Amino acid sequence: MSDPRWLRVEELFHQAMSLPPANRRPFLEQQCAGEPRILDAVLKLLGVSSQADSRFEKPIDPPAFLLDPSSPSPSVSSLQGSLLGPWRLLKPLAAGGMGAVWIAERADGQFTMAAAVKLLRRGFDSDDARRRFAAERQILASLQHPYIARLLDGGISPDGLPYLVMELIDGRPLDAHCAAMRLDVNARLALFRKVCEAVRFAHSQLIVHRDLKPHNILVTARGEPKLLDFGIAKLLDHELQADQTSPASLMLTPRYASPEQALGLPISTQSDVYSLGVILYELLTGQSPYSSTQRTAAEWFSAINNEDAPPPSRKAADPALARFLSGDIDAIVQKALEKAASNRYRSVEQLDADIAAYLAGKPVSASPQTPLYRAVKFARRHALPVSATAAALVLLLSAFAITLYQYRAASNERALAQRRFTQARELARLSLFDLYDIVQQIPGSTNAQRLLVSKSLDHYKRLAAQAQGDAELLAEVASGYCRLGDLQGNPYVPNIGDPPAAIETYRQGLALLTSIPDGLGPPQLELARARLHGSLGDVVSLAGATQDALKYLRHAETILLAARESAPRDTAIQAELCSRRESIADRLAGVGTGVTIDEAQAIRTYESARAGWLDMLTWPNLSPEMQARAARADAIALMKLGNVDMARERYTPAVARYRDARTAVSKLDRANRESLSSIRTQIMILKGEGYALLWSGKPIDALPILAEGVALSRRLLAGDPQNEQHQSGLTTLLTAHGEALKAANRPAEAAAAWIEAQSLSLALLARNPNNAVAKTRLDDIRAKLAGQ
Amino acid sequence: MKAPDKTVELLRRWNTGDSSARDILIEQFYDELRILARRALARERQDHTLQATALVHELYVRLFGQSDIEIKDRGHFFALAATVMRRILVDHARARLAERRGGGAAKTTLKDFSAASHPDTDIIAIDQAMHRLEDVDARKARVVELKFFVGLTESEIAEALGVGRATVERDWSFAKSWLQLQLESAPDPHAKQQ
């Protein structure tokens, strides 16, 4: 400012600026006579003033790069050589969002040791904050794992800045390592599994990383990962939260943040699962799961919450890679990237297990669990040495073909055992859950069912030996045992009439599950367990042990209520729960035994079962099968409510209930109305309605109803003469029809009906002497014939 | 000592010529500004306008809140914050330029906000010219920092620098033409000598 020429130029500039533009030059020429350089300078300044106005009109836009944690702090270099405890800072290593990192050495001469010192930028001003810092530091220091960089020391600098001293790692960031080593997908997955192992270990110590990203995962020259900065984000969180206005998420790297972090919601170990998902996505595709336009934290956070990541295969530039990624890897990555934590892998362990399964060629939990998927996995795992087309054909033909192939291809004993196991599982699934459903709908297939049962049981026994510790497989095997038992002797489904074998099978199924306490398994396992208890209840009640039956059934109900908590709107669980309530009501109402235990409670329980079915009918996307089942179940419950009225001689309300029940059945479409179970339902309703009319003194009205029931029963038995249930059903209807005939003064026709019923009952008792229903009925028929 | 007191004390020490106080403040402001910027960006999802002036004001409120600090210290605060902001912007422009010249792809995490209004080369050239401006007229350099790198109004600048508003207007008017001239004749290092 001491330059007088400068002051003169400025003064002239301002004076000229205050004049109209046209007057400026004459004014200046007059003022600067003899000072050509001054005149020139002022004229030049005036000449650029409009450009200057536009260039400087707006201040520089905000420094958004402040968001980039890697931009260095300007004054870190001033710390060079300073001491923090026994550590001397040698040179800056990096600067991160949390603070600068220095290479340091121990300066107290005790031993030579290099370390990385991280200076946290935030001050820990209060005593409370310092105590917390010390406590967290203690926890982190105890985190010792070969893949985790150790925390060696830490403290508070004289300026009040906290610092942490960590193992110095010589390595490259995960992504850079993979790129430099040109690792293929399997090698990347194998390396990623080691990362999972480290994170899993930390989680087991209740430490969440919160800021996982490739730069926090260094890979050493030996190819081993070392995770940095475990739990440090949390140390800083406290400070940020204390400051009220800052969302806790400010410090973290938005690109790898989980939705809950982006929203500032509580963080769990599943947040790390998400970050691992993003890292894996990038490792496999080289691209972020989100569209690449995001730059600011706000845009990242918005994308994390709103954008669905396309499957990795769609982001792969190379078509061969895309094919490789599609399927299991897509499913695994997408499950890790689920926005809702409840849909995500529950733990890093599960994510890791799926990658391991993929690498071993085994089925992956994230993929849809269809028999075909499993068959495909099965074939791929054993790398059929045939052309791809032929392999696909083989798969589509049947699992049996593959099995034969496997036996031939098996080269050593261990492989054979492994393959037998897999094959048994595949076969048992296919035969029971696919074939059985088909076979049981075919009238006259009892022998086929019997064969199927004995073959399947063999398979399941082999499987059961190896299923311990695998909850999913256990659930599968247990429900297989249940289906087998049902097929052997559950009175509620078409069966081959061997209740003792059924009870034995159910007990074996339950014994498999004893390693997992009731209610603690996954929903599918609990469902299988409940089914076993429920079916056991059904079968023992048939043998007359009503109180035992109620115990089993109520136990099933309890298990199902718990399972419904963890899997609401699961149709299988809901359907099972309603069915079990109906069974309980049956026992209370004395269905089959004629001994009512608690009528009021029975009615309430039937109504609660009905309410459950009707509620399910309002669920969106209910399958047509389930719709039909719920509608039919409602009809059955109505019929049973009619039966309760009947037991109390309330015939008029009973007739109304039965008519409602028939209406409910008639609403089913033709295919469902004509199905085996619907016909059985109709027969039972007709029987009830017939008796209600008969006992209220209207035998003439009852006759056509009961005649229709008999006709339907004959039709069923004619289609499958060995079927115990059909035999039992026809016995009942013939007895009823006989009574109506007698009341209508047609005794000869009545006697003919009863004699036929008597011989059917005798045949049933000959096969199962403990059949209480048949026993009661036989006594009844004999009395009627005697009274003729 | 509470945080505002500590900062005020540092401002005073700096004012009395203690340059280590200035270093500590620069470090502190740098960190604070980064946090404020992130918070502001996280808040503004659609609208990306994030003004340096708002950040500096927020920084002030954050550091001093309702506490009473002398106008002189307040002025020091703004002057120093403006210096830090300028440094931040220039360092960044340089880093980005070097990255581009190094042939590397631009980092996706670096959003080139300033490119819209002011190219990196411009920012660096302005900064260099301002070093020369500081030599001849330090107050004008402060005015430019507060006006152009922070975006304060003339009244705010007048208050911060303890001068009249008219002075600020005159300084700004002259300084920007002068800088413009320097930029147009950048290769000539003696341009300021008329």
Could you explain how this protein is built, in words?
The complex is a heterodimer of chains A (788) and B (194). Chain A is 63% helix and 6% strand. With 788 residues, chain A is of the alpha+beta class. Among the domains of chain A are: 52 residues, no CATH class; 88 residues, Phosphorylase Kinase, domain 1; 192 residues, Transferase(Phosphotransferase) domain 1 (Transferase(Phosphotransferase), domain 1), CATH 1.10.510; 91 residues, Serine Threonine Protein Phosphatase 5, Tetratricopeptide repeat (Alpha Horseshoe). Chain A has a 6-stranded antiparallel beta sheet, covered by helices on one side. In chain A, a hairpin with a 4-residue loop joins strand 8 and strand 9. In chain A, helix 1 packs across helix 3. Chain A is elongated, with a radius of gyration of 40 Å. The C terminus of chain B is likely disordered. By secondary structure, chain B is mainly α. Helices cover 74% and strands 0% of the residues of chain B. Chain B has one domain. In chain B, helix 2 crosses helix 3 and helix 4 crosses helix 8. The termini of chain B are far apart. Chain B has 9 helices and no strands. Chains A and B meet through helix 1, helix 3, helix 4 and helix 11 of A and helix 2, helix 3, helix 4, helix 5 and helix 6 of B.
